[in-house]
Amino acid sequence: MMQQFKGKVVFITGGTNGMGFATAQAFTEAGARVIITGRSEQTVNKAVAALGPSATGIVSDAGKMTDILALPAQLRQYTDRIDVLFANAGYGKFASIEQVNEAHFDELFNILVKGTFFTVQQLLPLLASGSSIILNTSFVTAFGIPYFSVYTAAKAAVQSFIKTFSMECTAKGIRVNGISPGYIRTNIFNNTGLTAEEIAGTIDSVIPTLPYKRFGEPWEIAKTVLFLASPDAGYIHGAEILVDGGLSNVK
Ligand SMILES: NC(=O)c1ccc[n+]([C@@H]2O[C@H](COP(=O)([O-])OP(=O)(O)OC[C@H]3O[C@@H](n4cnc5c(N)ncnc54)[C@H](OP(=O)(O)O)[C@@H]3O)[C@@H](O)[C@H]2O)c1
Predict the structure, then answer these.
(1) Where is the signal peptide (predicted)?
(2) Do 33 and 54 touch, CB atoms closer than 8 A?
(3) Domains in the chain, start-ordered, CATH in brackets?
């Protein structure tokens, strides 16, 4: 495979599983050095072992300010610069308006909104001109899906960061874009608090509504992230690319 990212350093939050892991894999195959995060030593070590010698892992919780503030020093043990930052860590929890409590609200806003904001803020000094930031949003922001109110609002905030960050980063020569996945076959449902039966029921009810009658695969997100990070996307800035198999636009 072409070593398009040879000599580049890529940092991915939430790189132990799902689309973060698939993206880490694609970047290592393309020659990059990849640094991933996850919440536990066990998941991080497992992912690093699977990714091979060009991968490094840091145990860091994107929902904890102390962990985010420690990141620059932790990263500087391995590198003095990052060429690509993929702010991807996250999950959803779903409940009706009546059922949402303060803990649910704070948990999702901490990891998705505060985590994304302060990760970018803290790592900006390591991002030189020519580097690229990619934020993971979601197709959900265009819809009113029952029980998704808090998750969708948090992702809408991240969507707004794409525009405001790109404006501030233009002069620094840093491109900022977003990727908006549709339903992707990852581990995400296992973090929702739903039972295995409820997960299977949700998936079965969603598939017939999808234009391709299938979930997307994590590698389909990874390939788009690599494109956004590459010089081929050099004129794409402040944009969000939908990778949702047509879900949002094909009716
Ligand atoms: N799957 C979908 O259909 C879909 C659609 C649209 C958007 N998204 C978004 O895509 C992103 C990735 O999700 P995924 O579907 O790939 O899910 P996944 O397979 O569950 O992977 C989530 C990743 O995030 C990490 N993570 C979770 N909470 C974290 C935290 N507090 N700090 C650091 N890392 C954390 C997990 O690592 P550890 O478990 O090791 O901590 C794991 O590596 C999320 O932002 C999600 O909202 C998913």
Answers:
(1) none
(2) yes
(3) 9-243 (3.40.50.720)
